[in-house]
Structure prediction request, 272 residues.
Amino acid sequence: MAVDVTGKDNPAQRDAVLAAVGAIREDPAAPHLLADLAASGFYSQFHFHRIFARHTGTTPGRFLTALRMEEAKRLLAHTSETVMSISDRVGYQSLGSFTTQFTRLVGISPGRFRELVDDLAGYRVAEPDLERARAAESRTLGCELRLPAGEASGPPLDDRVSFVGLFNADLPQGGLSGFGIVQGAAGRLVEQRPASGRSEMFLVSLPSDSLLVGLAVGGQAGTLVGRGRTAGRDGAPAELTLRRPDPLDPPVVSAAPAVHLRPFLAGAARRR
Prediction:
């Protein structure tokens, strides 16, 4: 049988990309030039750029930026460091550049993100008024979720709340072109800003008793993810298979789902 030397099933290529992602995660503030990442795996810059994008769905530069934003969110949520200090720790020499980039990719400013974390603290993902949070508009898409065949992936779908975002980009960051909250195995996605062509779909599924703040910050235990595309075909629901996160998955940078849920916390029981 022929060996696939170009596709995602090539172990040597995956190992090279894993090593690059590991180096970025270990020190997100470093420049991580493409030449250095490629040389560590004995690839040319051009070839490494291609195999990195094939395995992660995006470029090394965009993956680095996403990891920096992920670390910045963690520091904003779990430390009292100043925004300027956090900016420096994730590799930005200019506070203005960091604030602009964070606001563009996460969807709110660093200061507003800290306020969001405070507002969500103590709530569980199933406690907001999810019925009211499901926007009711005429242009919707069906969505069907499934667990991997024969795999014990944690609580069944009935005990999970899944958040699906549609983005006109290859990463879950910035503004949404559509959004849906799915309890169980099927639901509807609202196209808030109809896309030209097809949208990338990113899903984060959490056990219903998970802390809601994990939706904004990430890193929540029991998280499952999914990714797909939709061309907006009428009558054909999008199908997403949930799976455990992979080290090569780009971080979910956008805080849009958590921002959307914040107004629907009235009456929910905060637990500290």
